[in-house]
Specification:
By secondary structure, this protein is an alpha/beta fold. Helices cover about 30% and strands about 20% of the residues. The protein contains 18 helices and 23 strands. The strands form 5 sheets. The protein has an 8-stranded mixed β-sheet, with helices on one face. It has a 7-stranded mixed β-sheet with strand order 15-16-17-18-19-20-21. It has a 4-stranded antiparallel β-sheet with strand order 3-2-6-7, covered by helices on one side. The longest helix has 21 residues. It is globular, with a radius of gyration of 24 Å. The two termini are about 35 Å apart.
Length: about 550
């Protein structure tokens, strides 16, 4: 192999980890990271150390899919113990911070309701002083907000906990990402580098542009002992080249789950990036990295869940992303960390927040943020947005997992924005309970009844039809269902024909078809072309399907 002109193999995973756990944005933000360390990682490790065989049995039970069970077959207990001890040593400050949050919450709950909180500042745990503000809501319920921007410049943001695991995959099967850390393995190369390291960009550029193994190894600090494994990640074989879209129409490509690419000859917009791998046999046809443009003008993020912000996809694309648009928030509440701060901390420079009914204009395109309701277990979270994309007069509406709690919200939006041509709506309408994702942030136990009633659920048939009736789309696509096999390790979803989301989305698709609305529940891949110039001239526009 010519080591001076090599390509990174298309099925090499660049997996970001925090304390060897799969990285997502709640592990980046210092406050939520500390709470997840205490309330998820250490709990799972302690449980596995005490009863590994219970975990092994639970992982095999389909009813336990996505539960807090480590997937190592009841083995490797000593390695889990070692990881636990290393984590406690490295993250002592973060653990103390998380414990102080619980102490502060208890202090606030004991304070006489409605009286000034000013006297409590002296009793705030020392480690939190200068990082929190004590506040009331309008009903005299005391709480606090954190100064997240200050925390990123403190000891509580630890780049030393960040690392990258490089490994070559030959299938889509992986343990559930929130429950199983990445331990050492002969085929995995662990790099102790932070997520903003320029070596990640240098390495990932080699998927398209050949480069020197010696040079990138030097940038990444690869040891001589690790060189033989590192060199197996490269090939002299050039990957299929991306052909820039030069057509006169708008091209839509569905990459799976909520990931959709909109291209014209002038711009490219990628929504909720989650890109599958290629280079091995798959039972599902799908687009992959080779189908992405060399430059992505705008990445749009709808909300802060681990299946919509996939750092394993985003970090390798960082070198080609010009702008990231994220929902705006500076609430300071634990459940609502800033996406802008998180992305900037991990090396994304051009990050722009967008608020509800705020627009970003460029070329012949306008991106507008719209209200996103529900799907967050009734928590006060602002970092979520639906997106309206208009290319000339042709419009797409991405509502992601928004659950239509009150149709009049979208009636108000429609009065301002008008009807849309193409609607994308998520219908994972069963959803996990609040504690599944936000449990580590809670400082007291939630009753099972309360927990089960507050779901991470998108729209069902009735709520989805509100959007159809309000926006009168010519086309309506159900997406973000987590069905694709490369999603299972993130979503933990396995449907049957009797599953509520399948039944409900079938009903919506059938009703749309009855109304002569072009409709489909998307799966795997899909490509359509839209003649937006034709609509600009006042004619009706029909989608043109592109053969697989």
């Amino acid at each position: 192999m010519n080591k001076e002109r090599c390509y990174l193999k298309p099925n090499v995973i660049v997996e970001p980890l925090v304390d060897r756990w799969y990285a997502w944005t709640h592990l980046i933000s210092p406050a939520t990271g500390a709470m997840n360390l205490l309330g998820r990682h250490l709990k799972i490790m302690n449980s596995y150390i005490q009863a590994p065989q219970i975990h092994a049995a639970a992982v095999k039970n389909p009813k336990m899919l996505g539960g807090p069970f480590m997937d190592y077959g009841g083995k490797r207990v000593d390695e889990v113990k070692a990881l636990k001890e290393a984590t406690i040593t490295r993250q002592a400050s973060a653990m103390a911070f998380g414990e102080a949050i619980a102490e502060l919450d208890k202090l606030l709950k004991s304070h006489p309701k409605g009286y000034s909180l000013e006297s409590l500042y002296e009793q705030v745990p020392e480690i939190l002083k200068g990082y929190v503000e004590l506040v009331y809501d309008l009903n005299n319920n005391p709480t606090f907000r954190v100064f997240e921007s200050l925390l990123y410049h403190s000891e509580f943001y630890s780049k030393k906990s960040q690392s990258i695991a490089l490994w070559e995959t030959n299938n889509d099967e992986r343990p559930f990402c929130l429950s199983t850390p990445q331990l050492d393995a002969p085929h995995i190369l662990h790099l102790d580098i932070p997520f903003n390291h320029n070596g990640i960009d240098a390495l990932c550029k080699m998927k398209r542009t050949p480069g020197s193994i010696d040079e990138v190894a030097g940038i990444l600090g690869i040891s001589e002992a690790d060189r033989p494994l590192f060199e197996t990640f490269f090939t002299e074989k050039e990957h299929p080249r991306y052909r820039k879209y030069e057509g006169e129409k708008a091209r839509m490509r569905y990459f799976g789950h909520a990931c959709i690419l909109i291209e014209t000859k002038d711009i490219s917009i990628l929504v909720d990036p989650l890109i599958s791998y290629y280079g091995y046999e798959s039972t599902v046809d799908h687009f992959s990295d080779v189908d992405l443009p060399d430059v992505i003008d705008y990445v749009l993020i709808t909300h802060n869940h681990q299946d919509h912000i996939v750092l394993e996809t985003l970090l390798p694309l960082r070198h080609k992303i010009k702008n990231i648009i994220v929902p705006a928030t500076n609430s300071g509440f634990l459940q609502d960390p800033s996406l802008k701060l998180a992305f900037k901390a991990i090396g994304f420079d051009q990050v722009q927040e967008i608020d509800e009914m705020e627009s970003i204009k460029f070329e012949n395109c306008v991106i507008t943020g719209l209200p996103f309701t529900g799907e967050h277990s009734d928590l006060n979270i602002r970092a979520k947005a639906c997106f309206h994309i208009a290319i000339d007069q042709f419009s797409f509406l991405f509502v992601a997992d928004s659950r239509v709690m009150e149709p009049k919200i979208y009636e108000h939006v429609q009065r301002i924005m008008g009807d849309v041509d193409v609607l994308f709506l998520g219908m994972e309408c069963e959803g996990a309970p609040l504690s599944w994702l936000y449990g580590p942030l809670l400082t007291e136990e939630l009753s099972r009844e309360n927990d089960q009633s507050r779901r991470l659920a998108g729209s069902d048939f009735e709520k989805g039809m509100h959007l159809i009736n309000i926006f009168h789309p010519k086309e309506a696509y159900v997406y973000a269902m987590g069905q694709e096999p490369w999603l299972e390790f993130i979503s933990s979803i396995k449907y049957t024909e009797a599953s509520k989301p399948i039944v409900q989305s079938n009903m919506l698709v059938e009703e749309c078809a009855r109304r002569n609305i072009i409709t489909e529940r998307l799966f795997g891949e899909k490509e359509l072309l839209y003649d937006y110039e034709q609509k600009k001239a006042g004619a009706s526009v029909d989608a043109t399907a592109v053969p697989a």
